Structures are given as C-alpha cells and as structure tokens.
C-alpha cells in the first residue's frame, strides 16, 4: 500500500511540549481524549470506493482528524499569533475572531495575539495600518455584530513583504479568514516561509458566503445568508400577489455558485423560478424563460423569481471581462437586465407590475445565526489546536460532518458548484415547479 496521501498535512517539526489542556489519555474515559496523530477519517464513504480499495489493495484516501494533540510544537507563553480577515463580508467573521482569541488565550496561554487590519494590506507597512493587540476583553462582545472587527480588503500584497512583516513582529502563527483568493494568498505566504526555513504556521479558515469552497461540507456564514434571505422572499411574494400579474425579482449573492439562491428558495417555498450560474437558459423561444413566465402568469397571476448574481451572464452579448482586486470576474447586473427584458416582452401583451429587490449587502452584513455561531466557534478551536501542534498550510473544516484538516492547495483547485443533475437541484425544481429545461 502507498504511504502517500493527497490530504497529508505539512508540519513545522517535532512536537516537544506537552499540551496544557487537562484531557484524558485513556480510551473509554468519560473525559474527552486527545486526538492521536494516527487518527484518520476516510474521505469517500461510498461502498463502491470501499470495494475498489479492497480490489486494488490500496488504502482509502483519508484526512487528519481535527482536535487537540497531547504533544504540541509551540510553547504558548512564548508564542505570538496573528489574525487577518480578507475579501467580502460574511456572517460569522467576528465569531471566528472571538473564538480564535479565546482559544489561544485560555486554552494555551498564548503570550500575544495581534489583529492585522484591513486584510493583507495590514501586512504591507507602506499602507500605514498598525497591528492591533487582541485580548479577550476586546473581543468578548464582537460576535453580536456582523462585518469584521478587523476590517477587510481585496487583492494581494507582495508575499516577500508580508513574510518580512510577520518575521519582524515575531509572529509564530497566522490565521487567515477568507475565501478562495485569501486561502491561495496564505498558502503562498506559507510557501515563502518554507523557503526561508522559518517556523511560522499558516492556517486558513474557509469563509465564503457563496458556499463555493471545494470538498468541505459548508462554509461558515452560508446558513445565515439564506436564513436572512428567506423572509425577504416571503415579503417579495406578498408584493407579487398584491398586484395583477405581479412579478418580484430578487437577486441574491452567488458569483459562480447558486447555493444561496437555491437554499433560500427551498427554505421559503413561495418561489417559482430560481436562476443560477450553473445552468444556461434562453430568454426567448418556446422553451425560453420568458415563455415559461408568461404561462405562469396566465395560470396564477403572479410570479416570484430568485436569481443568483452570476446567472445568465451568457445573455450579455457585448460583455467585457473585468476583474476585481481579488481576481474575480465582475458580472453584469442580471437582476436589472431581467427586469428590463421582462418589461419589454410583456409590453403590448398584458400589463405587469415588476418589483426588483437586491438585498445582497444586507444579507452579507448580518450577524451569524445560532447554527453558524456554533460552527464558527468550533472551526476556530480546531484551527488553534492544529496550529499549536505545528501543522501548517491547512484549513480547519468539516467533511462528512466530521472536523478535519485539509491542505489549502486541495480546497483551492476548483470552486464547488451545484450539480444540476443531482438530488439537491431536483428538490429545487420540485419546490418551484419550474420547467426542467430551465434546470
């Protein structure tokens, strides 16, 4: 059997310190045990994969179980940790910051914790952002608010300069909270650290409101996003039913993946059409969206349409590719476009009343709900345990409903998308009643 495994985590070296955590070392005790370095969890749980491994005589692909180790790499009283938040806002960022500070301070007695203001800009001295000392007292209430206590920004900085800043401030571990671009950035920082043979752990905590980080069960903040969006859909339905041939169009976030739009529609089943980036749809023709909308109005006299921000980009014929500071393609406004096209289509045919709603920035700035709050705290704790054990260039995440460590470069290879031939999307089609050709 091969000893190599795609999910192996890099280590800074041998662990020479005993953990200050008072946990059991005896299996079967009623006290939680330390996690052994040999504890592994199988990635693919299907019986087909199991049988294939038996046939081929190979070990299944596995992941490292997250959690506290008995032997750790860093001595807390001589350790400095840093936290940075990057990219767009998302519910739960402050919960993660709070969880990291509390775990570092109370679990491991970490000497100093600093916040890096305004994303990776804070690691570039030329930007003039001073590091912020973080204490339990400073962060104890920030979980009640949306946004980020540390501020954020998009775009990268010179990797060599950022590592210089970490070394100059004697930082031993860096926790980066962000999405695809942020994770690639912190991985690049980790590569530069490795070249210098420095002993600095870099850890990613996957944050994207779109839920498009590959491999992991779910990104934090995602559940809050469609939870906040659900009553907006309810009210949009009330608007639509309040007028003859009333149409409500709600644009939700989802640059490349339509998880928020689809999940919000399932949680508030008053939606008649969900349009997402994963599906192509035509506006015109017998099988086009406008014809389907016309049939819906003829039958029910109202319609609710939820569209993800990245949907229908193929409909913009003279589209210019423009990217933001994070390298993401800036999409044309599909919501306004649909409103105009629907208005043109029904002009002279029948009167329609169209209401267009874009609550994106309200949704992403909301504080985390109870479910996300729990998730954020647990992600933060597991991130700290991994860093203190000297692991580096990994994300703390949940896979198959278990907490694990995964190499950053594995989760950034591609974006997670809705499988339009899968059961989840089929549930959306059943809920909305929209034609299958629109899926």
TrEMBL record:
Q: Which gene encodes it?
A: pfkA
User: What's the source species' lineage?
Assistant: Bacteria, Pseudomonadati, Bacteroidota, Flavobacteriia, Flavobacteriales
The UniProt entry, under InterPro entries, shows: ATP_PFK, PFKA, Phosphofructokinase_dom, PKF_sf, PyroP-dep_PFK_TP0108
Q: Enumerate the subcellular locations listed in this protein's record, separating them with semicolons.
A: Cytoplasm
Family, according to the entry, reads as follows: Belongs to the phosphofructokinase type A (PFKA) family. PPi-dependent PFK group II subfamily. Atypical ATP-dependent clade 'X' sub-subfamily.
Organism of this sequence:
Flagellimonas yonaguniensis
Q: What is this protein called?
A: ATP-dependent 6-phosphofructokinase
Site positions (Important for substrate specificity) are: 181
Q: Which GO terms describe its molecular function?
A: 6-phosphofructokinase activity
Any idea of its EC number? 2.7.1.11
Tell me if Cytoplasm is a UniProt keyword of this record. Answer: yes
């Amino acid at each position: 059997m091969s000893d190599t495994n795609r999910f192996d985590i890099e280590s800074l070296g041998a662990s020479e310190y005993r953990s200050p955590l008072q946990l059991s070392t005896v299996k079967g005790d009623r006290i939680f045990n330390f996690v052994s370095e040999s504890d592994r969890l199988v990635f693919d749980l299907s019986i087909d994969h199991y049988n294939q491994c038996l046939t081929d005589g190979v070990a299944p692909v596995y992941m490292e179980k997250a959690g506290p180790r008995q032997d750790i790499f860093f001595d807390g009283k001589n350790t400095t940790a840093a936290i940075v938040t990057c990219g767009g806002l998302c519910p739960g960022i402050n919960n993660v910051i709070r969880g990291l500070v509390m775990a570092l301070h109370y679990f491991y007695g970490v000497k100093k914790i600093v916040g890096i203001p305004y994303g990776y800009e804070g690691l570039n001295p030329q930007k003039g952002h001073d590091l912020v000392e973080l204490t339990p007292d400073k962060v104890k209430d920030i979980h009640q608010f949306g946004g980020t206590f540390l501020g954020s920004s998009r775009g990268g900085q010179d990797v060599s300069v950022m590592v210089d800043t970490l070394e100059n401030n004697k930082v031993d571990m860096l926790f980066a909270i962000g999405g695809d671009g942020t994770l690639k950035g912190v991985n690049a920082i980790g590569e530069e650290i490795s070249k210098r043979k420095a002993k600095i752990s870099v850890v990613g905590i996957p944050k994207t409101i779109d839920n498009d980080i590959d491999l992991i069960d779910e990104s934090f903040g995602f559940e809050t996003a469609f939870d906040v969006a659900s009553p907006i859909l309810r009210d949009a339905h009330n608007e639509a039913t309040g007028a003859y041939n009333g149409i409500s169009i709600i644009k939700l976030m989802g640059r490349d993946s339509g998880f928020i739009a689809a999940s919000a529609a399932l949680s508030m089943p008053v939606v008649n059409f969900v349009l997402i980036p994963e599906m192509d749809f035509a506006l015109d023709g017998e099988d086009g969206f406008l014809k389907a909308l016309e049939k819906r109005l003829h039958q029910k006299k109202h319609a609710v349409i939820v569209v993800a921000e990245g949907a229908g980009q193929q409909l913009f014929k003279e589209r210019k590719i423009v990217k933001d500071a994070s390298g993401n393609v800036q999409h044309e406004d599909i919501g306004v476009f649909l409103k105009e096209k629907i208005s043109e289509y029904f002009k002279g045919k029948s009167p329609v009343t169209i209401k267009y709603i874009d609550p994106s920035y309200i949704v992403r700035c909301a504080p985390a709900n109870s479910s996300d709050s729990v998730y954020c705290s647990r992600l933060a704790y597991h991130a700290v345990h991994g860093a203190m054990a000297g692991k580096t260039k990994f994300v703390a995440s949940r896979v198959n409903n278990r907490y694990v460590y995964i190499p950053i470069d594995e989760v950034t290879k591609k974006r997670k998308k809705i499988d339009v031939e899968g059961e989840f999307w089929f549930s959306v089609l059943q809920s909305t009643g929209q034609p299958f050709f629109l899926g």
